[in-house]
UniProtKB/TrEMBL annotation:
Keywords: Repeat, Signal. Pfam families: Por_Secre_tail, Sortilin-Vps10. CDD domains: Sialidase_non-viral (cd15482). Residues 772-846 form the Secretion system C-terminal sorting domain. Residues 173-296 form the Sortilin N-terminal domain. It comes from Marixanthomonas ophiurae. One of its GO terms (biological process) is xyloglucan metabolic process. The keyword Ribonucleoprotein does not apply. This is T9SS C-terminal target domain-containing protein. InterPro entries: Secre_tail (IPR026444), Sialidase_sf (IPR036278), Sortilin_N (IPR031778), WD40/YVTN_repeat-like_dom_sf (IPR015943), Xyloglucanase_GH74 (IPR052025). The keyword Ribonucleoprotein does not apply.
Length: 847
């Protein structure tokens, strides 16, 4: 049975208010980055993909898979080519924190939501990634010790309430003693997301950490933590509940025993948000964190309320008895609800701003929530939200700061030059040389988060992509620094007619489709005929037929077709399990469409609730062919260019089992499926493509791009130097033999696949039964099978390297046999049985 959380059925009417769907106007064809942005909630799509159907991501499985892949990459022979950055550099992406070295304004650090950490030693002329080979690429906070610029702390796991951050976990705190050259994990592995780090200005080994814990669920590893020995030992000094995050912590720099912590009660499911509660309050400690007291209505702050959301804190460096706190209200929207000021270390507070900043958080204040103070002037305060505002008189009046992308998360002053500031938002990193009056964007950071990409078949210098926060963008020169926005909102699928590139299709969230008939000079809306009552995925699939490129397909819960997207007509019934119990119109949707290369009759589809369907008569009849497939989110479907009966399907998600296949193949139109995951790590596979000659398969995963020359019996990491962040989409330009990979956090990279030397063996998979025992094995491995022909049994390590030949001869005579593996070190291995040209791969563990 397809599982889900049906508990919400009894509360559909109230949960409907949580639906993350909004009606948007059509964007202009050409837009600047600020105008292009819709005031849209960041979607839960990234989490839902990986958590369906159990609303659960096995973080330990994710970490094990990443460790294994890093081991493969670090220990293999560098026998492939390097990936090449295709761009963009000038677009940017979501920055979660920034830092300026106290020793030099030339030394800057920026932390990205899913792109790691970059450092410059020449004030941004050049940047170097310094965390790629270390820890998770999702960063929550970074802090330089004020007394020693070589000591840097990094909290992994973005803590903003976005579901995109909820799908990317941290594994604790890292420390560098050499300005980022080397790193050590120093603890708090289960904290998952870090909101803030406060380092004692006189003692670099004493720090306090605001840990938010898991976003989708409850865990006790949240609250405020303290270490006095640089992370050797940690103490949880403030814990409220297992659903109350510590989102901010601030320290009095002159009396470091005075501390403030902002706690935030929050729970979330993909279809429901409750980002407020009575435990969302400020706590204060006067004894270095040993004891804490709540600050509330008796101090002049808002009374504890079920509607109090995220709170931000800042202490003045020049007058530490002065501090500010910004509040939000409404459990769903967390809209701005006042800036408060204290001049007596928090004993009493006064509301200094309310109505003047209405709307600064738009309708998703849980995504921002920060406040900053000029280190030399306690009257100058910044409120950081959807927009950025500054007051020079403690909140009596405000100036809106323009000239930057919206969605602000970070701001820091230089300690050497009060006119020098570094800021970060969803459009990248910016500096100001005049106290924040004017800003310059760094247009040399490869941190764009792509959902989908495209390359123009006729003019491969034309690259397109749909991005998180930064529109649908393109270059027409193949340069890395001249990308421009052509369609507003968050960008998703792009399709370019491969025989007439005047026709280009682009879209923003929830299927807001645009079409160009003049090569991208202008775009206009192209959803005529799509029913407004249909359900649309955050990333609605749109695909051009490879057989007749005038035909385009569009998926809601049903499949539509149209000539050049002029008017859409449905050609299927509901191909999902139906509407989600919450009433949300964003689930129960199609996620993948694979039309035939040979005709207009055969089309495969995949859905977000585990369904794969096929029609062989152009949509007159449909068959659900997913009975033997796992119940997980379908990320892609690919069809053979030469045979409609041969298709591939890939899945996202994690199961709680030891083995979780993510790639399947059928050779009979879906009547039977074979697991061809082989030695792939057990992590989500996001895309699969087949080369024209069908001799190579490529898959994009949450950790790197892999390829197989033998129908999935074995997979190999493709190339070198691809950043270890999620790869979302792949596109192949066959004439130039160039593969493009769109990453979610490190822009687009390209690879010359002509450097791959193809094998000559004809491997296929089979469903013959093979059993391995014991599990795990130690010195002996027993293999039981039902094969009856000549064949071989070989052991491969987790890099795909042959390490031991177990058997060669008649398999029938050895249907059950024991083999010594005492010479194999502990680790993960695969046996490969080759018989009659068929291949079976099985994983086993040596302990």
């Amino acid at each position: 049975m397809k599982t889900f959380y049906f508990l919400l059925l009894v509360a559909i009417s109230s949960i409907l208010t949580y639906i993350l769907v909004f009606s948007e106007t059509e964007p202009e064809a050409r837009v600047n980055e600020t105008e292009a942005y819709f005031e849209e909630y960041p979607s839960d799509w990234m989490y839902y993909q990986r958590a369906y159907p159990d609303n659960y991501i096995d973080v330990s499985a994710l970490q094990k898979a990443k460790t294994r892949v890093k081991s493969i990459v670090n220990n293999r022979n560098q026998n492939g080519s390097d990936w090449t950055l295709a761009g963009p550099l000038n677009t940017g992406g979501r920055i979660t924190d920034v830092a300026i070295s106290p020793d030099s304004d030339d030394v800057l650090y920026v932390a990205a939501a899913t792109g790691g950490i970059f450092k410059t030693t020449d004030q941004g002329a050049n940047w170097t990634p310094i965390f790629d080979e270390v820890g998770p690429m999702s960063i929550g906070d970074l802090a330089i010790a004020p007394s020693n610029a070589d000591i840097i702390y990094v909290g992994t796991g973005e803590a903003n309430g976005s579901s995109n951050s909820g799908a990317f976990f941290g594994d604790g705190i890292y420390r560098s003693n050499d300005a980022g050259a080397t790193w050590s994990n120093i603890g708090l592995a289960e904290s998952q997301h870090i909101g803030r780090i406060a380092v004692d200005p006189t003692n670099p080994d004493r720090l306090f950490v605001a840990a938010t814990g898991t976003l989708y669920g409850h865990n006790p590893e949240r609250g405020v933590y303290r270490t006095t020995n640089g992370g050797t030992d940690w103490e949880q000094v403030l814990h409220v509940t297992d659903s109350t995050a510590a989102i901010d912590v601030a320290m009095n720099p002159q009396n470091t025993d005075i501390l403030y912590a902002a706690m935030w009660e929050r729970t979330r499911q993909p279809w429901q948000r409750d980002y407020a509660g009575v435990t969302s309050v400020i706590h204060r400690s006067m004894d270095g964190g040993d004891t804490w007291e709540e600050l509330g209505a008796s101090n002049g702050l808002p009374a504890a309320s079920t509607q109090t959301g995220r709170i931000g804190l800042a202490v003045s460096a020049s007058d530490p008895s002065t501090l500010y706190a910004r509040f939000t209200t409404d459990e769903i929207t967390n809209e701005f609800n006042g800036l408060y000021k204290s001049t007596d270390n928090g004993d009493t507070w006064n509301l200094v701003t309310l109505g003047a900043l209405t709307g600064i958080d738009s309708s998703f204040g849980w995504y921002f929530g920060n406040v900053r103070i000029d280190p030399t002037d306690p009257e100058t305060v910044w409120v950081i939200g959807f927009q950025l505002a500054r007051s020079n008189n403690s909140g009596d009046s405000w100036s809106n700061i323009s000239g930057m992308h919206v969605d602000h998360h970070a701001l820091e002053y230089s300690t050497n030059n009060n006119d020098f500031l570094l800021a970060g938002n969803d459009g990248g990193a910016y500096i100001s040389q005049n106290g924040g009056n004017n800003w310059t964007k760094f247009e040399n950071l490869p941190i764009t988060q792509f959902y989908n990409i495209e390359v123009d078949n006729l003019a491969p210098q034309n690259l397109y992509g749909g991005t998180q926060d930064n529109n649908t963008i393109r270059t027409t020169t193949a340069s890395t620094d001249d990308w421009e926005a052509v369609w507003g909102g968050d960008g998703f699928h792009v399709g370019i007619d491969p025989v007439d590139n005047n026709y280009i299709y682009v879209e923003s969230q929830y299927g807001n489709l645009g079409r160009s008939t003049n090569g991208g000079a202008t775009f206009s809306g192209a959803t005529s005929g799509i029913s407004g009552s249909d359900r649309n995925n955050w990333n609605t699939p749109v695909v051009i037929s490879p057989f007749n490129t005038e035909m385009v397909y569009y998926g809601t819960q049903r499949l539509y077709s149209s000539t050049h997207a002029e008017f859409w007509s449905p050609i299927s019934p509901d191909l999902t399990n139906g509407q989600h119990p919450s009433g949300s119109l964003t689930y129960g949707t199609l996620t993948a469409i694979a039309p035939s290369y040979l005709n207009l009759e055969t089309i495969y589809t995949g859905s977000d609730d585990g369904n794969v369907n096929v029609t062989f008569d152009g949509g007159d009849t449909w068959e659900n062919i997913s009975a033997s497939l796992p119940d997980r989110y379908v990320t892609s479907v690919a069809i053979s260019p030469s045979d409609d009966m041969v298709a591939y399907v890939t899945f996202s998600g994690y199961n709680r089992l030891d083995y979780t296949p993510h790639v399947f193949k059928t050779e009979d139109g879906g009547q039977n499926w074979v697991d061809i995951s082989g030695n792939l790590p057990e992590i989500p596979v996001n895309d699969l493509i087949i080369t024209a000659d069908e001799s190579l398969l490529f898959v994009a995963t949450d950790v790197n791009v892999w390829y197989s020359e033998n129908n999935g019996a074995n997979w190999t990491v493709l190339g070198n130097e691809l950043p270890m962040t999620l790869t979302r989409d792949l596109k192949m330009h066959e004439p130039t033999q160039t593969l493009y990979a769109g990453t979610y956090g490190r822009s687009i990279h390209s690879y010359d696949i002509s450097t791959i030397v193809l094998g000559t063996e004809n491997f296929t998979t089979t469903e013959e039964e093979v059993t391995l025992y014991p599990v795990p094995a130690t010195t002996e491995l027993n293999i039981r099978h039902s094969l009856t022909s000549e064949g071989t049994i070989t052991v491969y390590d987790n890099t795909g390297r042959s390490v031991k030949n177990l058997f060669s001869g008649s398999l029938e005579a050895s249907s059950q046999q024991s083999f010594s593996i005492a010479d194999l070190p502990s680790g993960i291995y695969f046996i490969r049985i080759v018989s009659k040209g068929n291949t079976i791969s099985k994983q086993f563990v040596v302990k």
